[in-house]
Design brief:
Layout lengths: L1 E5 L3 H12 L3 E5 L3 H8 L10 H10 L3 E4 L2 H5 L4 E4 L14 H16 L5 E5 L7 H12 L4 E5 L9 H6 L4 E4 L3 H10 L7 E4 L1 H32 L3 H9 L21 H14 L5 H25 L6 E5 L14 H11 L3 E5 L4 H7 L4 E2 L3 H5 L4 E4 L11 H7 L4 E4 L6 H6 L3 E3 L4
Parallel strand pairs: 1-2, 1-4, 2-3, 4-5, 5-6, 7-8, 9-10, 9-12, 10-11, 12-13, 13-14
Helix pairs in contact: 1-3, 5-6, 9-11, 9-12, 11-12, 12-13
Bound molecules: nicotinamide-adenine-dinucleotide.
The site of nicotinamide-adenine-dinucleotide (NAD) has 27 residues, from helix 1 and helix 5.
């Protein structure tokens, strides 16, 4: 089977490399010529552990190519994946312009190379009904046989390669058996449970999953406010909850600075908007959003507890990525908190092992440092915003030595409180 993947971002690139590794012939198509040039040289434009070595291997085996040319990319493809971005617009609505454009491009390219049946697969996270929209746009330009399938992506950045090869489940949205069977064949080697639904249900499963996970995070973060007030430990509360099999060990209950990233915030906002368009409100999700916003202030308040007025104070921030093991800073709680600190007049010195350049493009006014210890120099406090494991290995005595004031706010409950306290640092975690 020959595969085309439109969009070579976090999802499309992993999908391209993954399918090529499974033995298919894949061509990745992107409008971003810089990305395509880099990819053609065997370099991954994103930081994703394990991805670049598989990319190089697939190149050697001549199973993977990249192009900016849609006609060339699509002409021989049996299956065409759409993996373009679906960001929030300024009102929180889902911006479908990239998906629409991809559908137009597919329709026109297919018309140039009419052939037998093709399957167009939507991997992007899209509002319910987008499958029909894509089909109608393609039909305007192409009169050959095709079906549109929804196959939402559930990978986690930072573990995306693992998640491609070991997904918890594969959702195939389209009951036309010919289309569903082709996708089943594609994923045969992955040995994962496959759920076949209608297109709309598959589209909703993706929003439901992300909204549920985001709500879990807001649930525990809301409890951090109460736990601190009454002298309880929210991290132990989560531990106790997870031992209940109905909740489970993998429940998303890590107290922290709030959910972020390119998916949860936009998908919660997107689902609220989708409901509004259907004359419904989703109060639980509105609350999840409100808690998430308040959590940023909750973290800032911790610095104010010790430093009072933040004007002209220097805050060292460890971590810019929205979570560890990625360079993605989209909707990162770290950037949200940094912006708040700057508004309060603080100066920020920051360090992140891989996300610095992405963050600098969004907030150039931070003093970025090439080492974690360097970022601490003469700072009034250390604020840990991303759970990079290497931060735990830094000796408490060295942290103490670099800081001007011995204050640590750990928004991820990452560092060892005992060691820091022993070294003479004043430590605040979240929810305990
Ligand atoms: P991304 O922004 O990293 O990549 C999108 C790519 O599509 C970009 O390289 C862009 O240049 C390209 N593109 C846009 N329009 C194009 C067109 N007409 N033709 C060719 N290329 C085009 O986005 P992403 O993070 O990979 O997300 C893609 C989709 O997958 C989104 O809907 C997202 O919600 C969903 N998703 C993302 C993740 C994640 O962790 N990033 C996980 C699951 C689902």
């Amino acid at each position: 089977m020959k595969i085309a993947v439109i969009g070579t971002g976090y999802v499309g690139l992993v999908q391209s490399v993954g399918l090529a590794t499974l033995g298919f012939n894949v061509i990745g198509i992107d409008i971003d010529s810089k990305k395509v040039t880099k990819l053609t040289q065997g370099q991954s434009p994103i930081y994703e552990p394990g991805l670049e070595s598989l990319l190089k291997k697939a190149f050697k085996q001549k199973r993977l190519r990249f192009t900016t040319n849609m006609n060339e990319g699509i002409k021989n493809a049996d299956v065409i994946f759409i993996a373009v971005g679906t960001p929030s617009d300024k009102d929180g609505d889902v911006d479908l312009s990239y998906v629409r454009q991809a559908a137009v491009d597919i329709g026109k390219a297919l018309q140039q190379a009419p052939r037998n049946y093709r399957v167009i697969v939507n991997k992007s996270t899209v509002p319910i009904g987008t499958g029909d929209l894509v089909a109608s746009i393609v039909k305007k330009h192409y009169n050959g046989p095709f079906d549109v399938v929804s196959n939402p992506e559930f990978l986690r950045e930072g573990q995306a390669v693992h998640d491609f090869f070991h997904p918890d489940r594969i959702v195939i949205g389209n009951r036309v058996s010919k289309a569903a069977d082709i996708l089943k064949k594609l994923y045969l080697k992955l040995n994962a449970p496959i759920l076949v639904t209608d297109v709309k249900t598959a589209e909703l499963i993706k929003y439901a999953s992300n909204s549920f996970l985001a709500t879990s995070i807001s649930f525990i973060n809301q409890l951090t406010w109460l736990a601190e007030q009454v002298g309880a430990d929210a991290t132990k509360v989560a531990e106790g909850m997870k031992l209940d099999k109905r909740i489970g060990q993998n429940a998303f209950l890590s107290a922290g600075p709030g959910y972020g990233g390119s998916c949860f915030p936009k998908d919660v906002a997107g689902l609220i908007k989708i409901a509004q368009k259907n004359n419904l409100s989703l109060p639980l999700l509105e609350a999840a959003e409100a808690v998430n916003r308040r959590q940023h202030d909750f973290i800032v308040k911790k610095l104010q507890n010790d430093l009072k007025n933040l004007k002209n104070k220097t805050i060292a921030v460890w971590g810019l990525a929205f979570k560890a093991n990625t360079d993605d800073v989209r909707e990162s709680p770290s950037l949200a908190v940094i912006t708040k600190l700057q508004k309060l007049g603080a100066k920020v010195q920051a360090y992140d092992p891989v996300a610095e350049s992405n963050a600098a493009a969004l907030i150039p006014s931070v003093q970025y440092n090439s080492t974690a210890l360097g970022a601490l120099k003469n700072a009034d406090a250390l604020l840990v915003m991303t759970e990079w494991p290497q931060f735990r290995k830094i000796k408490a005595a060295l942290i103490k030595k670099q800081l001007k004031n011995p204050i640590v706010v750990d928004a991820r409950n990452l560092l060892d409180e005992k060691k820091l306290t022993k070294a003479g640092l004043k430590y605040q975690g979240v929810g305990r």
